[in-house]
Amino acid sequence: MTKSQSKIPFHDLTFYDDLPKMRDVEARLKTFLEATRKRAQRIEIEAGRLAEEDRVYPYDSVGDADMGRIRRRAMWFLERKQLLTGMHHLSDENRVRLTSLRGGLPVARVATEHEADEIAAALHAEMPWMAPATEAVWHGLRASARNGLPGLRINPLVLVGSPGIGKSYWARRLAHHLAVPTTMIDATGEPATFAIVGSQRGWSSATPGKLMQTVLRDRHGGPLVIVDEVEKSGDVHSSKGTRHSLTEALLPLLERMTAATWECPFFQIKCDLSWVNWVMTANSRKGLPEPLQSRCVVLDLPDLTTGQLRQFAETEGHRRSLPDAAMAALMDVFESGTIRHTNLSLRTVSRMLDRAETLANQPLLS
Question: At how many degrees (to 10) do helices 346-360 and 324-335 cross?
Fold first, then answer.
């Protein structure tokens, strides 16, 4: 698991607490005006155009009319500064929501190629049948370390394979080993376009997307986003007939250059999301949009064998610290051939493990 982090600016906002106070701006302008008039008066005295007894001392050099002009100038200055904060259009509530961005955000990094090797080895030991995906991640991690990048950059992945082989589970385990937060989008169960990027203020259901919500909640600039069954996502149409597709929402985020200046539709601020990494899953290539395939590494994964399921059950059981009796009962299921002719699925084995863990932790009745 990576332990290293570095900080990225993430935004170009200026927070209102960092703006100068009205009284401080007025005091600076007054001091400047007093010094300017004092200097001009000294030049006049030295040139003989002003008598010494006609000298005006600093505390009398700025009158009420001057203070009125100073106040108006200070107000104009602060209004201009507020316009340049990047948040002048937001409500007080939404400005508060963005305070977690102050000072930039951390991103995970891999310090050495050896660390990249360790992460890939641990992931492969858990799920060896996902070797093509693990290898793609491994190369990305080694390149990130070799190039001294401040964060992790892995090519966006689309994992294509039968249901139940562990595509989403593998992505969650990847996030665990990278020590990064994750968010999951079900492309079939919600308007995935809005779920990822959010919707503009002014809509009745306007909200930031899960990506920005994760960034703000976890205060992390490089989460892992998992999009399940990406090939089944349909378009969303507004009441005005505008079409919104998942692909159109994803493309700017998958390109590192455009992701670095991505504008959140809800907050309407620019963010650096170029350190976000993406894993998408699909049951087949049918329905995968060509623009998405051209920007991702698309990997076809094989079905699971009984032996691989048995290995997963054994590895996961030990990771959960199941007692020997529970492990022996699990292994008997495989060795007896009970599931040999059934539909092989990682979900089935996971439910078996959950059940064994529940039974092992149940208190005994006296």
Answer: 150
pLDDT tens, residue by residue, 103-144? 999 999 999 999 999 999 999 999 999 999 999 999 999 999
Cβ-based neighbour number of residue 147 at 10 Å: 8
**Beta bridge partners of residue 263, listed in sequence order:** 270
Taking the CA atoms of residue 134, residue 140, residue 145 and residue 149 in that order, the dihedral angle to the nearest 10 degrees is -140
> Which pTM was predicted?
0.80
Note whether 320 and 141 are within 8 A (CB).
no
Characterize 305-332 residue by residue with b for buried, 16 or more Cβ atoms within 10 angstroms of its Cβ, and e for exposed.
Answer: eeebbbbbbeebbeeeebeeebbeebee
- Provide the strand spans (E) within 156-261: 157-160, 182-186, 224-228, 236-237, 243-244
**Interval 30-45: pLDDT, tens:** 999 989 988 888 888 8
**Alpha-carbon distance 366 to 359, whole Å?**
16
> Hey, what are 183's tokens?
């968010």
Question: Count of alpha carbons within 13 Å of 334, Cβ hemisphere only?
Answer: 18
Residue 149: CB atoms within 10 Å = 15
Element (H, E) at 94: helix 92-97
Distance from the first to the final alpha carbon of the chain: 43
Beta bridge partners of 153: none
- How far is Cα 206 from Cα 185, in angstroms, rounded to an integer? 18
HSE at residue 273, side-chain half, CA atoms within 13 A, is 28
- Smallest CA-to-CA distance from 172 within 183, 160, 157, 187 is with 183
Distance from C-alpha of 164 to C-alpha of 345, rounded to nearest angstrom: 5
